[in-house]
């Protein structure tokens, strides 16, 4: 008697593993009271010193307490005020007070104290 053994491709196995992990996670959430997300916020005043309430990169409807930008971090050129009175619309916080948000030659905005890199 001849037996044929089927080995699915690696990509299919990866999808099966990821789907299984997601299924277990969703089932465990349905049996519990829900997931607890630490650092969730609505406004800057709910975050600590040197932080702001920015939109999460992973879940658009979620805002997380995020550190203000340090030298080299990406920033948004029109986001300066901390605490901001409303809800932030960006995933980055303003730069720390001693830094400025400047545009670099690669067209990205970053926090810097090096005024030679500023695009005037």
CATH C-level class of the domain at 38-120: Mainly Beta
Low-confidence parts, pLDDT < 50 over ≥5 residues? none
* Main β-sheet, spatial strand arrangement: 1-2
Q: How many distinct helices?
A: 1
Q: Span from first to last CA?
A: 79 Å
> What is the name of the CATH topology of the domain at 38-120?
Lipase, subunit A
Largest sheet: 2 strands, antiparallel
Helix content: 10-25%
- Mean pLDDT over the full residue set: 74
The CATH architecture category of the domain at 38-120 equals: Ribbon
Subcellular location: Secreted
Organism: Denticeps clupeoides (denticle herring)
Protein name: Prokineticin-1
GO molecular function, one term: growth factor activity
Question: Care to describe what's here?
Answer:
With 120 residues, the protein is of the alpha+beta class. It has a domain at 38-120: Lipase, subunit A (Ribbon), CATH 2.10.80.10. It has one helix at residues 10-31; strands spanning 51-55, 63-67, 100-103, 109-112. It has a two-stranded antiparallel ribbon. The N and C termini lie far apart (79 Å). 21% of the residues are buried.
Tell me the layout of helices and strands.
Layout: H1 10-31, E1 51-55, E2 63-67, E3 100-103, E4 109-112
Antiparallel strand pairs: 1-2, 3-4
Quick structural gist:
Helices cover about 20% and strands about 15% of the residues. The protein is globular and about 70 Å long.
Keyphrases for this structure?
Prokineticin-1, two-stranded antiparallel ribbon, single chain, 120 residues, alpha+beta, Lipase, subunit A, Prokineticin_domain, growth factor activity, 4 strands, disulfide bond, 1 helix, 15% strand
